[in-house]
Amino acid sequence: MRDLNDLMMDLDRIADIAYELSQHFGGMDTPCRKKKTSTYYLAKIVPECLSLLRILPGSRFTDPGDLFDFPSFCSISRNLIEAANLHWYYCVDQTDRNLSEFRFHLYDFHDFRARLRIGRFLGAEEGELELLIQESDQIKAIIKDSIFFSALLPEVQRQILKGRRCAEFNQTEIVEKRGMDVEFFNGIYKLLSTNTHSTPSAISAVVHSKLKGTGLQNAFSCLVLSYVTSFVAELVRATGSMWKMQFDNMESKKIVFSYAGALR
User: Fold this and answer.
1) In degrees to the nearest 10, what's the CA dihedral of 88, 2, 218, 223?
2) What's the pLDDT at 28?
3) Which of 8, 14, 47, 181 is the most exposed place for a label (fewest CB within 10 A)?
């Protein structure tokens, strides 16, 4: 397992590469929904990576002796993993056109429902809310008529229609479809989801040998940060490949491909 300082520097570098890549998309447009959505997720992860670095003691934003906000570290790490998995689900997974369109209907419906909740909370004008409701209802009808929707379990259907779910698969199922180590993922994900309350059982679900000989907090941080960085790197690699972008230098390509390759 790499040293925490090295891992922080690597995440910082990959976040910088992601930012540089995102700058190439200004003014660019494409009819391909997968490619377009990939840029949204790329833009989303950059500030999340910086937020993660800002709470890690000893990063370029903090002093080594600063208090480590472990719950926030878990929360942001989980957000990054979930974003990377959804990026793969919408943009990378090789599906036929009909299934891809269904997934983007789920994406749009979830987005409209979220905007509607925010609008109501902020007291938006009734006309604006009514427009969101109409657009949401139109997509909802399309989803309900889909053969892909009818094949889902009733509980999954219910969560989708309530706007609580934006995919037919949960995070574990997406990881399984990606061909990754599901048991290891579940151990990490459980740790991030419930942090201190489930720490002992979460550790047992991961690999004990990776945690021997170090303090638990430092071991957790290294284990999680390395894993999160791999998800981020694979998102960057896949987006660059989708748009046929070239890395600025071989060093950038090397670090991205090195971490991305650890997920396979």
Assistant:
1) 30
2) 74
3) 47
